[in-house]
Amino acid sequence: MKNQINESRRTAQSHIATMVSEGTILYKVYDGKFKSHSGFLFGRTLHRIATTDTGDTMQQGDTVVLEYGGNVCSYDWQSISRCPGGDHKPTTSVEDFCTFYETLIRRIRTVGGVPVLLSLTPICERLFFNHITNGRNHEHILRWLGGSTCFIRDLQQDYSNALLSLAERNAVPMIDIAPLVEQHHAPETLYEPDGIHLNDKGHLLIVDAIKKFYF
Predict the structure, then answer these.
(1) Would you list the domain boundaries of the chain?
(2) Domain 2-214, what fold?
(3) What is the pLDDT, as a whole number, of residue 152?
(4) What is the pLDDT averaged over residues 148-170?
């Protein structure tokens, strides 16, 4: 793993790199170092991006930094609001999450790219709960959550643990951004109102993490 990280850092410093989050190009840390690949388009889920041809513009040695997970471990909250006693499944299971991620890693490597993973961004429980209950039955959703929003954090942790194991299993370096958010003096100020996506201030933390990792 250490050799893989060192090699990734070298290629990132000498080749063009791409930053992808939920199918969106988010970060341009240094001019000439980060660019968009046409295979990665706005609004694409992990499933869609894993089954899309990504090799049309990627060059040998390009480093591709991947960030997915916030939306995939969500649920159909409208259905839960209507029927909290039903059998509700996440948008993407942990098993499918890993399968899609590994498929994407293989596709990047097949065309000579170097994948690097970002850990999942922690969900802000209060903001997220307010978001998913807006216009819905607050009591029904809270009942389904077991009476506490802690379930949201625990659920996402399952995906975080799976991603860590996946990175180790595939010898892919991972940048852990979770502590940067969790240890911030005012973490809620880093989020959009939905409690999942970071705002500009939050994204600057990730930019700093990428800079420290590579440069």
Answers:
(1) 2-214
(2) Rossmann fold (3.40.50)
(3) 81
(4) 89
